[in-house]
Write a structure and sequence with these properties.
The protein is mainly alpha-helical. It has one domain. Helices cover 70% and strands 4% of the residues. Strands 1-2 form a two-stranded antiparallel ribbon. Helix 5 packs across helix 8. The protein is globular, with a radius of gyration of 21 Å.
Amino acid sequence: MRHYRIAPMKTKDTTAIVASTRLYTLDYLRGFAACGIMLFHYLNNGVGSTTGANTFLMRIGSYGVSIFYVLSGLTLYYVYFRRMKPSLPDLKDFYVKRFFRIFPLLWLVVILTLLIKHYNPGWKQLVLNFTGLFSFIHRPGLALGQWSIGNELVFYLFFPFFVLFSKKSKFVFYLFSAAIIAIYLYFAFRVLTPNIDLVHQWTTYINPLNQVFLFLGGYLIGFLFREVKISKTTDLLILAVGLLLLIFYPTGNGNEAVLVTGINRLVFTGICFIICFAFYKNTVKLPRILNRFFTFLGEASYSVYLLHPIVWGLVGLIALPAAAHIIISIPLTFFVSYIVYNKYERYFMEKGRVIAKKYINPPKETTVQQTKEATAV
């Protein structure tokens, strides 16, 4: 996904929104998170070395998706807040573009999973998975990682309310936010327990109501800190604090449930916010080659995230030692993701933009004077 700084443009009758300067640093973080999740799964499946709440990869595996959620809320705020009223045309535009961004790749991955795993789930599960309705009844989905995409679909229903309330009544917005926070705390301290392996609490943990606070947190970072400027030194210190806490915060060597319950849930959620804030406010652009690579990872992170289990399964059809399985799967995942993003994802994203522009927000005829006013900034 491309990220832009949005600036108001004065016109004769209304305020137009123009996109400029790319937020490269959010691409970098999204790419890092996708790679972290991929490595967590590959190492865990290959050599089983990531178990234990005190290991770095277990923490990345547990909170990599959380960082995605925070970035999603932040990015959508950044792109849509000033643009969305929200009116009916705005909502149609938003959901059409989200549909073409999410569903084509999701369908492809579900089909590949069914073929590779030889699943025969029945027509009800097929309907739920292909329509996205699985996300509303707490099913994880057929493909590995699909549960988090289902949660995103639920978050998209919350997003217009975030925009509406924060524009029309900050009191209602903060009250609504407080309710989401209360639900988040209820799950962390009452519903989930550190004494039971997370696998036995999985359907409860992936409940969208337990995750939506992360999406809200990203939105709040944009809403509260968009105009805040900090020095590069301060930003790097904030990032260092977040990373050090992520690596060294003491939790003991419990199971994964220890990381997502009680005080630890609050601490690691806060760490996600700190890291995302630091990347959001960071203005450093990497050298050209590194910038292109990590920007690609950010753009193709959706493919990397959903396709890496497919690649792992296909490579696993060959009898290989665990180390060779991992070494082959990592570059192959990058290669496949590059092809799928450029030849498949981008095609459907453009289709979504074209449909939204043609049928929902068709261009209006403008006079020469209006054109001059619209470009005089």
